[in-house]
Write a structure and sequence with these properties.
The chain is an all-alpha fold. The protein has 9 helices and no strands.
């Protein structure tokens, strides 16, 4: 990994910070697809709309202390927020294990948290927001330029190839089946993977994501979550393959 020299923040801080990032990602997942403001509205109970105090906003601890219920209306709040907070911790732990205490862990953790948010939204809505995917493309190219400027054209070409190949594949699928098999968000997310990882790694992203997607489909069918020709979101599989290849460089085949 790249030597960041005197990076101002120690890498281990991603671990205690992760639950708070996860809590914020939960807000984004709930509000972004609905077109709600992310920063200006106070967090509140989704059932009684009572604004939450500071103690109720402490990740994981507040859920355990209140036994998963709103302290005002008593309604069960569900597992969404603790689940996404724990997922954010898992992302940080994976990045830290791969990168150690250096500056690279902050880049990889931030990428993983962003991919977690995108994957969760796609799993719930079958849409990958442009505000996330397009930002990932731009940031990937900026990071590439900063870390290895000579590779910028390779990564830019990978972004273009990733987008173009998925769009072409979807057009072929549509001509045969009269329905879309891949969304434009999937193509943009693959373009982001190309911007971060480059041409040589792009095929590994596609194959690894395909393997993960098949495993998700099999598991969903066996647990009754997938029936007939029901669609599954490909974004989570693509995001997981993207993140794993970013932190390890190891494909799943």
């Amino acid at each position: 990994m790249t030597d960041f020299g005197q990076f101002s923040l120690p890498g281990w801080l991603v671990l205690p910070l992760a639950p708070f990032i996860g809590s914020w990602l939960g807000v984004v997942v709930r509000r972004l697809p609905a077109g709600r403001r992310l920063a200006l509205d106070r967090s509140g109970c989704e059932h009684c709309n009572t604004p939450l105090g500071p103690a109720a906003l402490v990740p994981l601890c507040s859920f355990i202390w209140q036994r998963g219920r709103c302290r005002h209306c008593g309604v069960w709040l569900g597992w969404f927020y603790p689940a996404i907070e724990l997922a954010a911790v898992a992302v940080a732990a994976a990045a830290f294990c791969a990168d150690g205490n250096g500056g690279q862990v902050w880049i990889d953790a931030a990428l993983g948290w962003t991919l977690l948010c995108a994957a969760w939204i796609d799993a719930e809505t079958f849409r990958l927001p442009d505000s996330i995917t397009l930002s990932l493309i731009l940031i990937g190219l900026v990071v590439t330029w900063f870390l290895n400027g000579s590779a910028i054209f390779n990564h830019a070409a990978a972004a273009a190839l990733g987008y173009g190949s998925f769009r072409l594949l979807d057009m072929i699928y549509f001509s045969l089946r009269k329905r879309h098999g891949l969304g434009q968000g999937d193509a943009k997310l693959l373009a982001a993977a190309g911007a971060w990882l480059g041409l040589a790694v792009l095929p590994y992203v596609v194959v690894s994501a395909g393997i993960i997607g098949i495993c998700i489909a099999i598991l969903s069918r066996r647990t009754g979550g997938l029936r007939g020709e029901q669609m599954i979101a490909f974004g989570p599989a693509l995001a997981l393959a993207f993140f794993l290849l970013q932190i390890t460089g190891v494909a799943l085949f």
